[in-house]
Structures are given as structure tokens and as C-alpha cells.
Amino acid sequence: MCYEGGFSHDPDKLTYGVDMKKIRWCGILQRIALAYFVVALIEISTKTAQAKDLLPGRFSIFKLYCWHWLVGACVLIVYLALIYGVYVPDWHFTVNNRDSADYGKILTVNCGVRGKLDPPCNTVGYIDREVLGINHMYAHPAWKRSKSHASRLRHWVVMGLALLVLGITLHFTDAIPLNKQLYTFSYVCVTSGAAALVFSAFYVLVDIGNVKFMFLPLEWIGMNAMLVYVMAAEGIFAAFINGWYYDDPHNTLVFARPRFDQIY
To answer: Coiled-coil intervals in this record (predicted)?
Structure first.
């Protein structure tokens, strides 16, 4: 975890190696791994106290996993209390980018707020700075290197079109056919390119056109990505969608998918 969370300089530079003064302890994926580790410890420690059979009743699932629900509720309460209750004061940082016109200057980020979720003033960044120090943060966060709308769209659209055309060309020339099961290179190119174009379209509508009310459900999905992933992986979404049919119980989107896969 420490190794993956750190960084190395370019091999062709004399400063090659890991600077322990600026190493980034635990990146995003490593923090997710730590969360899984804690959950695994809870599962192991409460397994003996867990009932073997699911008792009948409406709330039996809560009784069976009472310790899991209790720990989860405690974690959620602490998380929400920290996110929305901790006061984030103004903070300073020194510009270390030699190519910047502000190199060497000490700049101030004006916060003085509670419960703000933007990158400069959220509680997570504040706790990281207080515990690990500012040298252990990313040197070029997104809020410092933001560009204009046109430059962002140009980058995303050009890259998306290039990947999409490359993937389609590889497929129809029989060089590398599309295959989801094997995650072939053409499949990766097509899906990545299509995702870039769709993302660009959403960016134009939401961030530039300010049409946000239509996409509030997608915003909720993005803010709860892990929950949505687990619900989809465990078949909860499929079970919900399968409960809606037209004229015949087998005429649902879930039953229609195998027929669609056979056609295409």
C-alpha cells in the first residue's frame, strides 16, 4: 500500500527514487483496499456470533447481521459528522512548479467553511493536510490545473473519436474483433471512445449549459458509485427491473437481454 501510494521520479533524472519527504501515503485505490480490509476484519470477528439460519420475519436480515449494521451505522455517522461538521480554515501552499509564473510564492486558499465538498475546501483534504502534511498531497490536483471549456472538450472529443474509429476499424477489418468476455483491444477502444464522447456531451449540457435538474439521478449515482456497483453486482438492480413487464411476465428488459445478445 505504501509503495503504490508513493511516486518515483523519471529514471533519466539524477533524482531518481522515492522522496520519503514527499511520498503520498496511500492513494485512492489503497484507501479503498484499507476499507475492504476493515470490513473483512469485522466479518471474521463477528462470524461466530452470527446465526446459521435466516429466521422468518420481515426484519430477520437485520437481526442476522446486527453487528454489521451497527458498525456500518457508526461509520456512516462518523463520516457524515466529519464531512459536514468539521470547520475547514484558510490554508496556504507554496508553488513548487518551476515553470509557473508564481514559482516560490506562498498562495492562500480561502475556505473558512463547513460541509463544502469542492476539492480545495473539503474536510477530507483538510484532514490529509493536518495528518500527513501538504507535501504528501498530489502536486498537481485538478483544481490547480483546470483549463477552459474549449480545451477540455477538444482533448476529450479528439481522443474519444480516435479511440472509437480505431476500435471500429479493428473490428470490421477482422484484425481484432469486439469481444466483451475477452476485453479485446478493439472493445476497450470502442467503449473508451464512446464513454469520452458521452462524457463530453454531459459536460456541455451540465457544466456549460447549466441543465442540471434532468441529471440529478446520475449525480446521485456518481456520488454513491460503490453502493451502485454493489447493488448491480449482487443483482438487486436486475431484480427490480425484472419486476416490471409488458403484457407477459417474461417480457422484461432482463429476459430481453439474452435475446439481444444472441442477435448481436
So the answer is: none
Q: How many residues does the chain have?
A: 264
Distance CA 7, CA 17 (A): 8
**CA dist., res. 190 & res. 193, Å (int):** 5
Query: Taking the alpha carbons of 125, 129, 132, 138 in that order, is the dihedral positive or negative?
Result: positive
CA 224, 141, 26, 132 torsion-angle sign: negative
**What cell does 236 get?**
438487486
All three cell numbers of 199: 462524457
- Region for 35 from its dihedrals, namely left if φ exceeds 0, alpha if ψ lies in -120 to 50, beta otherwise: alpha
Of residues 152, 134, 154, 129, the one with CA closest to residue 142: 152
Q: Which of 145, 84, 69, 159 is nearest to 114 (CA)?
A: 84
Q: How far apart are CA 229 and CA 233, in angstroms?
A: 6
3 state SS of 140: coil
- Percent of the chain as helix, strand, coil, to the nearest 5: 55, 5, 40
Interval 111-138 mean pLDDT:
83
Give the pLDDT of residue 187: 92
Residue with cell 476493515: 38
**In this structure, what are the phi and psi dihedrals at residue 115, rounded to the nearest 5 degrees?**
70, 20
User: Distance between CA 88 and CA 85 in Å, rounded?
Assistant: 9
Lookup result for grid cell 480545451: 151
pLDDT at 75 exceeding the cut of 90: no
Report yes or no: 137 and 147 within 8 Å, Cβ to Cβ: no
